[in-house]
Amino acid sequence: MTVISSRENKIIKELVRFKKAGFRKENDLIIIDGAREISAAIAAGVNIQSLFCCPPLIKTASGKYGNFFGLDQEKIITVSPAVFERICYKENPDGFFATASSPRKSLSDIKSKNQPLIIILERVEKPGNLGAILRTAHAVHAAAVIINDSQTDIYNPNVIRASEGYVFFQTVVCATIEETVKWLKENKIKSFAAATSGAKRYTEADLNIPAAIVLGSEADGLSATWLKEADQLIKIPMSEGLDSLNVSVAAAVIAFEALRQRAV
Q: Which of 54, 61, 169, 193 could form a disulfide with 230 if both were Cys (CB 3.0 to 4.6 A apart)?
């Protein structure tokens, strides 16, 4: 076990650079801030490179995370509170921080079971919204989340935190619209795109089939390409003067309707 107390240590200086998405991508690594999230990553089979811990900040019950999550001692680095403050990402840290190999998944990794439910997101920008949608995807047993023209890092620390670590259990794939449409057709999955121009209410659509729910960006909604390529346009009715919901809320509303129909 290594011990670091200097904020100017070369390992710490390098680690601070990982707060930038470009540097993480360049090095094919992600950072995981928090015990719950690290535990989830390990349970999902993510390869942890290094675990940084700050004993004075650790508030969890002794042994809750199994002797530093059961990691090999050579991967564990103990740091001072001043050092941990420099490397951590979130407020009120719990004393655990890790670097890990970036998981890589493609459309071929999606397990298209008999009646899969897929969530497709186009140009979603806010990490918090993406994280919330990933939690919803896990809650409704979605087979995958496909992201077209991603505007945020899938493994942004805020995505990991907002998803409560479920990003590691979910099959999350980045693909072009063309690749996505082709994959849907090959797997006989019908796409339902949420749009104000939708002819049917989401409750009137038959989601009790192999289905993909398609949602657009927070600012612009779906592109003309998706509005054309979708098998059916659906809408969420709402009060006059309001034409959209937060994308994570819209995803949850429609996804749980799909779950309700499948439970009938």
A: 193
Question: What band does 61 get if pLDDT is binned at 50, 70 and 90?
Answer: very low
> CA 167, 171, 175, 177: dihedral to nearest 10 degrees?
-100
Residues 257 and 126 in one domain: yes
Query: Could you read off the pLDDT of 165-188 as tens digits, one per residue?
Result: 999 999 999 999 999 999 999 999
Burial-class residue 239 by CB neighbours within 10 Å (0-12, 13-18, 19+).
Answer: exposed
Q: Are 136 and 257 in contact (CB under 8 A)?
A: no
Same domain membership, residue 193 and residue 152: yes
Residues 64 and 153 in one domain: no
Average pLDDT over residues 214-234: 93
Asked if residue 53 lies in contact with residue 4, where contact means CB atoms within 8 angstroms, the answer is: no
- Collapsing DSSP to helix, strand or coil, 5 comes out as coil
